[in-house]
Amino acid sequence: MTKYLISFPGEAMDIPEGQFQAVADAAHAVIEEAKQAGVYVFGGGINEEVLPVRVSGDGSIQPGTYPDHTVPNGGYTVLELPSREAAVEWAAKIAVACRCPQELREFQYDPAG
């Protein structure tokens, strides 16, 4: 099975006034469905209040991201699925729940993972 990253930037969500809880509930329901189906690996949102840093092999820290790289934000879900078609189906479910299109990426095969 292949792992897929389903994600969206925070600014993609357009939630009407008073609808945040409904969106949150719908998103949690899809994640619970993925867990029950046995395909859920990991999910969460980036804490945008904590600034990113780069950590070198010697442990030194540089503020920010790589030059010319945007700061990742928004929500991320990793699912392990039998096909890209199944990944598209799950991405569509998440898109409905979060009320915004989702970006779908496939992780490379890792024989150790």
Written description of the protein model:
29% of the residues lie in helices and 27% in strands. The protein is an alpha+beta fold and 113 residues long. The protein is globular and about 40 Å long. The protein has a 4-stranded antiparallel β-sheet, with helices on one face. It has a two-stranded antiparallel ribbon with strand order 3-4.
Strand content: 25-35%
* Total helical elements: 2
Order of helices and strands: EHEEEEHE
Radius of gyration: 16 Å
Give the spatial strand order of the biggest sheet.
2-5-1-6
Q: What shape does the CA trace take?
A: globular
Number of strands: 6
The largest β sheet comes out as: 4 strands, antiparallel
Low-confidence stretches: none
Class per helix and strand makeup: alpha+beta
Bin the helical content. Answer: 25-40%
Terminus-to-terminus distance = 11 Å
Summary?
The protein is of the alpha+beta class and 113 residues long.
